[in-house]
Design brief:
With 368 residues, the chain is an alpha/beta fold. It has eleven helices and 18 strands. The strands form two sheets. Strands 1, 2, 11, 12, 13, 14, 15, 16, 17 and 18 form a ten-stranded mixed sheet that branches. Strands 3-10-9-8-7-6-5-4 form an eight-stranded parallel sheet. A hairpin with a 2-residue loop joins β11 (264-275) and β12 (278-281). The longest helix has 25 residues, at 190-214. The two termini are 31 Å apart.
Length: 368
Amino acid sequence: MSATTIPIAEYETPVLLLDVDAADRNIKRMGDFFRGKKAALRPHTKVHKSPWLAKKQIAAGAKGITCAKVSEAEVMVDGGIEDVLIANEIVGEDKVRRLVKLAKRGKITVAIDDLDNARQISSLAALEGSRVRVLADVNLSGAAGGILDRTGLVPGKGIVTLAQEVSRLPNLDFIGVMGYEGSLKPIQGAEAKVEHGKKAMALLVDTARMISAAGPNVEVVSCGGTMSYKFVSDFPGVTEVQAGGYVFMDLGYRESGIDFETSLTLLTRVVSVPRPEKIIVDAGFKTVSAESGLPEVKDKPYIEVVSLNAEHGHATVTDTSHTPKRAERLEFLPSHADTTTCLHEYYHLTRNGKVFDRVKIAARGMLQ
């Protein structure tokens, strides 16, 4: 760590700030929550893309981590993480070759929803001399009437047949099922979210039972996220939960009633004050995402971000007695941490209002 510190109010902009103590408290809190639960925590690292943070999560009790891509998994294994789930289909000979090579260096699990894909993984793993663990991907959203209808097979005969066939393939270890119901955020009301989520979990667990009844052993039922961790962790039959966003929090989670601390902000500065009720800052689409809504200004409710350009942000000031001066620093609260993190190369670490070091976002830009 660097011996020098710089006050946030004097630091470079625009950069991502990470309040290390707040992030550590979030990590400890989630680890403590899962201690003694039947389901284990397997955090999704797509939000932070950092082996440094993943190691903190594992030290706090997580059984392993989750990634979205082979390239991210490679970074995590390079960073010393041994147990990695790639919660996505990995297709094409180029990527599958990387997958089976990686499986020689760690305990790698991958999602599948197609027998030909599984056969290719099996064949190339045999040539490489590795073994790959596989989970059948269950499309919970389509089956449960949700809005996130993407990969996976719907519960029923098709997925049971897939599991049976995959369990016979060499160099593959069929270990269970995976599903994600990601449409909870727009559902209004806490009770409605829980009801919808439990409906999806019941479909996943019932699918696991169908597969077990047909022969293949189901050890793992992997699902859930930060939005659903409380009820998913106690749902009978679930063995691991992929919550990850709790480390940073963002406006989307906060507005949905998730109460972890905000640890990630985007530091920006005022570059122009065209009039007392309007300011322009040096953070735009290139530094903070807005696909889930515009960011908010931390601790300054009288300033509202109203639009973003590539390099600039526009904000209105309702209390002009507090209009910021040029070069004054502001902190943005991102609406979506995942799609903001990937825009940056470093976390600039803060404690007690000062920046004391930075950590590279090692899996940033890993697109394959």
